[in-house]
Amino acid sequence: MQLKSFTDLSLRTLLYVGMQGENLSTIGEIADFFHISKEHLRKVVHRLSSLGYLHTTRGIYGGMQLAMAADQIRLGKVVALMEEDMSIIDCEGRQCTLTGRCKLKGVLMQAQQAFLQVLDQYTLADVLSDPLLQQQLRIELHAVS
Description:
- It comes from Proteobacteria bacterium 228.
- Helix content is 56%, strand content 6%.
- The chain contains seven helices and two strands, in the order αααββαααα.
- The protein has helices spanning 5-19, 27-34, 38-50, 75-83, 104-120, 124-128, 131-144; strands at 54-57, 63-66.
- β1 and β2 form a beta hairpin.
- α1 (5-19) packs across α3 and α4 (75-83) crosses α5.
- The longest helix has 17 residues, at 104-120.
- The radius of gyration is 18 Å and the shape is elongated.
């Protein structure tokens, strides 16, 4: 299963903002850091904010920070909310001679649920606590600033 780029950017945005602690992060900083479009990132930030993961402040001194503690942000829930339609296979949208006699859809749905259950065992704090990630982010942040 491959995550959509929107979901990938959402997770990376949460990582970046989470590493900043109480400091505000801006869309420009994050876009520069990950070499991505500010416009695309704006949509990601808007969605994360509307779901209650980010608190945003407008204006010249504005920015964003986590709206809840990193240990309250379950990765599986974030992925499920950002992916919206996680159908692995489309049995309904086309005619298939096996419809009604095939267990493939059920098996794939079980696999998808297992995927999300594993992700839900981890929080943003778990990922942020990785010393190698912290070191890499600090090196990159220093290079960008």
